[in-house]
Design brief:
The chain is of the alpha/beta class and about 325 residues long. About 35% of the residues lie in helices and about 15% in strands. It contains 13 helices and seven strands. It has a seven-stranded mixed sheet with strand order 2-1-3-4-5-6-7, sandwiched between helices. The mean pLDDT is about 95.
Length: about 325
């Protein structure tokens, strides 16, 4: 598979039998990378055995393959990865409201159900990996679907829209008991004050602070801008757009290095909690320096779950 092969998938995203190249803006956004090869192989023979299920939830209105590099990497280490586009209730584009979040959350659960039909899936081990808007949708899905055993968030919107979390009535981070790996970026309160998030959507309990009954591994990626958590968004960024989003003096190579460490920590988190791999757990317990992370790239905090007989939830 090449970047071009992936971009062509958007031709039939809505109507499988009616390709529409004109509506597929990814063709122009990624045209300079079309011939770049990735790892996936079309019609490859599946490996024998059954493997944990990973659902990937993309960002606002994005395509299912926006993080193909990460998804392929995880699949190559023994996971069945499924993803669907970020689509609103009645429109191709996602809506930044509870209806939109609920629609994507239902899609996540639909994919878990679909995974039952596959011959190589292990239904007792399921996690959701997400970026941006997919992060808040995956939180909703995890709160409602008992089949989800772990959650990975890459700069997820649950941090920025606590008011929407509060407004659901049935999503309670303080009751969640599953492990969470949350990658964050350095963003100031002043930046959030000046963005276009409606004030009411910002007001609510901090989701990470409330996550006390499930293990929490919070990883602050010091030099990553928001788009850099997506491999295809990295490829589509012009030099000008990269400069607009650039964090301090971290360059494109630093963004690639940071992305690689995000992938490695994601894999080891999933191996530790879904495969119960002691070596993966050991890597998570080490400092970034002990794992060979370059200085000034990430800061890690681990908070083990508080046990309480009075807590029930996801």
């Amino acid at each position: 598979m090449t970047v071009g092969d992936y971009s062509q998938l958007a031709d039939t995203e809505i109507h499988f039998k009616a390709p529409d190249e004109k509506e597929n803006r990814w063709r122009s956004l990624l045209k300079t990378s079309f011939d770049t090869p990735l790892w996936a192989v079309r019609e490859a023979k599946p490996a024998d055995g059954r493997y944990p299920i990973l659902i990937y939830a993309p960002g606002d209105s994005s395509v299912s393959w926006e993080n193909a590099d990460l998804c392929e990497y995880l699949a190559s280490h023994g996971y069945v990865v499924l993803a669907s586009p970020s689509i609103g209730v009645s429109t191709r584009d996602m809506t930044d409201d509870l209806d939109g979040i609920n629609a994507q959350a239902r899609d996540i659960s639909f994919l878990i159900t679909y995974a039952r039909s596959l011959p190589d899936t292990e239904l007792s081990a399921v996690a959701v990996v997400s970026w941006s808007w997919g992060g808040i949708s995956s939180l909703f899905a995890s709160a409602r679907d008992p089949r989800i055993d772990a959650l990975v968030e890459m700069d997820g919107s649950m941090r920025y829209y606590p008011g929407l979390v509060k407004g659901t009535g049935d999503v309670h981070p303080e009751r969640m008991t599953i492990p969470l790996l949350c990658f964050t970026r350095n963003v100031s309160l002043e930046d959030l004050e000046n963005d276009d998030i409606p004030p009411a959507d910002k007001v609510g309990p901090n989701v990470l602070n409330a996550w006390i009954h499930g293990d929490l591994l919070a990883v602050n990626m010091l030099g990553m801008a928001h788009p850099e958590f997506s491999s295809m968004f990295q490829r589509r960024e012009s030099a000008q757009r990269f400069a607009e989003n650039q964090v301090a003096d971290y360059g494109r190579e630093d963004a690639n290095t940071s992305y690689a460490w995000v992938a490695l920590y994601t894999l080891n988190f999933l191996d530790a909690y879904l495969k119960h791999d002691d070596s993966a757990k050991g890597l998570l317990e080490k400092t970034p320096a002990e794992n060979g992370v370059p200085n000034h790239f990430m800061g890690i905090k681990f908070r083990p779950a508080q046990k309480s007989s009075g807590v029930s939830g996801r």
